Amino acid sequence: MIKQELALKQQQKLSPLQIQTIKIIELPILELEQRIRKELEENPVLDDSPEQGRDKEEEEETKDVSLSEIDEDDPIPAYRLKVNNWGKDERPQYNTFSVKQSFTQSLMEQLGFRNLNEHQHAVAAFIIGSLDDDGYLRRPIDSLIDDMAFRANIETTEEEALAMLKVVQEFEPAGVGARDLQECLLLQLRAEQQTEDVKLAERILTDFFQEFSNRHFQKIMSKLGIDDTVLKRIIAKIVKLNPAPGGQIDDSYNDQAQQIVPDFLLSYENGNLEVSMPRFSLPEIRVNKKYAALLMEAAGSSERQKKEAATFVKQKMDSAKWFVEALKQRHNTLMSTMQAIVDYQHDYFIDGDESHLRPMVLKDIAEKTGFDISTISRVVNSKYIETHFGIFPLKYFFSEGLENQDGEEISTRELKKALQECVDAEDKHHPLTDDQLVEVLSGKGYKVARRTIAKYRDQLGIPSARLRKEL
């Protein structure tokens, strides 16, 4: 017997305006410019030409035309938003700064220069996509092969996968694609000119890696028959190698740097902080000359032609209206969010002192603005602010919090800064253990557990005390 039940289900459906707004809020300023340009090209109803220089006759011909003449049951209201963003006027000069090309992007570009067939290229590309943020391949080859077949429908063998990994390991920055620290350091040494010091460093990392890691220097000197002067020179070379090649791309990539235009400008004058978005403005929206003529012509044609013309133009008008309204909402949402961040971190924005940076999470700003956490996340993503002490991504101002010994909440960034200062000031012949770091920080007023010290030390890229010890 088939049982039928009637259930009432509430489902939220986003309007076209909401969808437009969500997509546009995520865009940083340069991508927004491209998006506006694309919309202007695809929607002939949108017109961004300035009013200056337009004669009286042209102004009359291009004024807003109401579709109520064509379809009285569904008139489209006229709307105009006047801003001078583009047009014949010279574009304003942007303050920009450069960020290095993305890690994955640079590897894919290098892959494009290799003489590989389509299948080999696909295998190598999948390997690149499987690298961790620090540039390592930490997944077993057999697991990677299975995943390649399952997720990308790429059938390969262990031999081919290893061959393509070797190709990736030849890319810059040297050390990329390594499966462990030892391989990472050796790949970098093999990419250097093979001097006697480089060869000796390779031998130490190949034959005595465990002894080197455990700082058993006397054993290494005895086995290789070298003195401490030579070993110090080799150690100096090894410690200059990059243990995390994916963390940054070296200076040779400066020519391929991407430009970032800050979305916000923060000024500090007479004790007041003021946020602005001076490089953003909305184009003036009007029905252009061609469409004015088309509408008038459609009004005098057959009934079918009138309806087709009216329907098409109405769709374009609706699309333009939603787009412009989404731009307005983006501007208001970004301004409200940035102002809330500046208010929350007021003391920090006065002088840029990290110790004044309060613990702050997305929820804090969501509560101040009334926006959803997802909206705040979209605003913060890929956005930058130019301040009187530097240019920063908005994500920089967010961090978790801890309590100090006085019960006051401090940011994890402040604690990390204090930890880094302790390590920088230590005696490198007798580096501080994590337990000793706990005591030192406790003396500075920071209440922190040993496991937290270990966690933050790892995040800062600070080795353990044993590995920080020098001869």
What can you tell me about this protein's structure?
By secondary structure, this protein is an alpha+beta fold. The protein has helices at 16-25, 29-42, 56-61, 103-112, 118-129, 141-152, 158-168, 181-190, 196-207, 209-213, 217-224, 228-239, 289-299, 303-344, 346-351, 362-369, 373-380, 412-425, 434-443, 450-459, 465-468, and strands at residues 97-99, 258-260, 264-269, 272-276, 384-387, 390-393, 401-403, 409-411. The chain folds into three domains: 14-100 and 259-269 and 278-398, no CATH class; 103-251, no CATH class; 401-468, Homeodomain-like (Arc Repressor Mutant, subunit A). The strands form three sheets. It has a four-stranded mixed sheet. The chain has a two-stranded antiparallel ribbon with strand order 1-2. The chain is flat, with a radius of gyration of 30 Å. The chain starts with 15 loop residues before the first helix and ends with a helix.
Q: Hey, roughly how much beta strand do the residues contain?
A: 5-15%
Task: Give the number of DSSP strands.
Answer: 8
Largest sheet: 4 strands, mixed
* Total count of helical runs of at least 4 residues: 21
- What is the overall shape? flat
Query: Which blocks of ≥5 consecutive residues have pLDDT under 50?
Result: 7-11, 52-94, 96-100, 249-257
Kindly report the average pLDDT value: 77
Report the order of strands and helices: HHHEHHHHHHHHHEEEHHHHHEEEEHHHH
Rg calc: 30 Å
| Helicity range | 40-55%
N-to-C span: 84 Å
Order of strands, widest sheet? 4-3-5-6
SS class: alpha+beta
Number of domains: 3
